[in-house]
Design goal:
Layout (H helix, E strand, L loop, with lengths): L3 E4 L1 H17 L6 H14 L21 E4 L3 E8 L2 E9 L5
Parallel strand pairs: 1-4
Antiparallel strand pairs: 2-3, 3-4
Helix pairs in contact: 1-2
C-alpha cells in the first residue's frame, strides 16, 4: 500500500532544533553542511515509516494513542488515517526516557 505522508510542524521543529543546538555547541567540529545533511536525513527517514521502519508500541507516555517507529537516531510518533501517515512528533534517541 502506498501511503501519503503529513509531517506536522512540531515533528520538523524537533528535528531542526536538535541539530541547531548541536551546531551551536560543537561549532568548531560540526559544520553548517553537517547540520543540513543530518536534518535532511532525519526528515527523509520519515518516509520509511511502514515500509522499512516497523510499527511499534510507544515507549513515551506522551505518545500514548500513537504508533512509534524508529531509526538508529530518531523516534517518530504517528497515526494512520486511511492512506495517510500523520507524523506528529519526533524525539532523538539521546532524549528518549
Amino acid at each position: 500500500m502506498a501511503y501519503k505522508y503529513i509531517v506536522k510542524p512540531r515533528a520538523f521543529q524537533k528535528i531542526r532544533s536538535f541539530y541547531v543546538n548541536v551546531a551551536r555547541k560543537y561549532q568548531h567540529a560540526y559544520s553548517y553542511e553537517d547540520m543540513e545533511r543530518d536534518i535532511r536525513n532525519a526528515f527523509f527517514s520519515i518516509y520509511e515509516i511502514e515500509k522499512t521502519l516497523q510499527r511499534r508500541k510507544p515507549t513515551l507516555a506522551r505518545w500514548e494513542g500513537y504508533y512509534m517507529a524508529n531509526t538508529d537516531k530518531w523516534y517518530y510518533a504517528y497515526k494512520i488515517e486511511d492512506d495517510t501517515i500523520v507524523v506528529t512528533d519526533a524525539c532523538h534517541a539521546q532524549n528518549m526516557k
